[in-house]
Amino acid sequence: SDMKSYLEHTVPDGFDPDEISWITPNLGVTDWEGAEEASLTGCYVINVAPELESVTSEYDNITIGFDDILWGLERQLDQCARHMRDKIEETPDIRIVVHCAMGMERSPLAIAWYLHKFEEMDLNSAYKKLADARPIVIDRRSWI
Hints:
By secondary structure, the protein is of the alpha/beta class. It has helices at residues 34-40, 53-56, 73-90, 106-118, 123-133, and strands spanning 21-22, 27-30, 44-47, 62-63, 96-99.
């Protein structure tokens, strides 16, 4: 793959991880602090970091925890992707924001998986699209 390595990160000048990085018109990624802004601006908020539930529950519409990275992550990714697809089918102009702690690993993986499963995009292209919009993304396909 021609993907650059995201193992060592420095946040680019001017990049704020609290901002929502829009990957498609319907799908965005942010960190846990950006979830508040997403909620306040009418977005549907999905939390994939179950350890943050007590902190972000007033902003989250649903938590689909990516908490079993070794054995159950593909099932959890499928559940999250189906949920996003169903919401978009119900309300085509919905804006869905997925967050984890930093918006670097789990939430980008959720969006990449959605793009792969329902937008017929290979994972290399999905991660390139994510990294173009959110330069701190770390490719975590190895978790699947």
